[in-house]
Design brief:
221 residues; alpha/beta; TIM Barrel; eight-stranded parallel β-sheet; 8 strands; globular; binds pyridoxal-5'-phosphate
């Protein structure tokens, strides 16, 4: 199947549900992204700063670029001029740096707080108590150039659907709790980024608003 056909198929499944599709184009060529763009896709995600910057320069300027990979504070400055959404905020330090660079660029940058939900040590993200600590920290309310629009999580890489379902269920439950406790009067806190090629159907069942698909669209990496 072509990239165009893959996209049309996914969009049939997700558009009517109001789910945002982020096309994860990491390791894929500019030409492959152009094909997806020609098919109407405008939201693309990358996980490495250098690759993201190079592709942003090479491709049409109406693309909304999302950063989905682990982000080091010292690299925020390279993406701050154009990034639409950062999915992978996992510390107050990083958030403070994003705020600083956003201010320099006279922008407000949308961010998701990444929560560690997987049963693996390797996946980044905030533990539940760290998430609460961040939201309660003294400096947090003063970050005027970042906007927290929701949460993101990556499930365990397993064939066991029950495990994946439970992790997504927990993240959705946490999202509801955080919304009530910290963002009650804030309509912008509404995104739940969960689901990749192997598990997006389960993620949608569990309340995802944003799925991040790479290989389903572009083929295996
Ligand atoms: C690579 C990646 C994806 C997409 O993975 P696929 O399995 O190809 O759909 C989604 N989210 C993150 C954070 C990624 O790094």
């Amino acid at each position: 199947m072509s990239i165009t056909n893959n996209l049309l198929k996914i969009k049939q499944e997700t558009d009517s549900l109001g789910i945002t599709l982020v096309a994860i184009s990491k390791t894929k060529t500019v030409e492959a992204i152009q094909e997806a763009y020609a098919a109407g896709q405008r939201i693309f995600g990358e996980n490495q700063v250098q690759e993201l910057v190079e592709k942003q320069e090479a491709l049409p300027k109406d693309i909304a670029w999302h950063m989905v990979g682990h982000l080091q504070s010292n690299k925020v400055k390279y993406i701050a001029p154009f990034i639409t959404l950062i999915h992978s905020v996992d510390s107050l330090k990083l958030l403070i740096e994003i705020n600083k660079q956003a201010k320099k660029n006279n922008r407000i940058i949308d961010c998701l707080l990444q929560v560690h939900i997987a049963d693996e040590d390797t996946k980044f993200g905030l533990a539940y108590d760290e998430l609460i600590e961040l939201l309660r920290s003294e400096g947090f309310p003063n970050l005027e150039n970042v906007r927290i629009v929701g949460l993101m999580g990556i499930a365990t890489n397993t064939d066991n659907e029950k495990v994946i379902k439970e992790e997504f269920y927990e993240l959705k439950t946490l999202f509801n709790g955080i919304k009530t406790s910290f963002f009650r009067k804030n309509d912008q806190f509404k995104e739940l980024s969960m689901g990749m090629s192997s598990d997006y159907k389960i993620a949608i069942e569990q309340g995802s608003t944003m799925i991040r698909l790479g290989s389903t669209i572009f083929g295996a990496r």
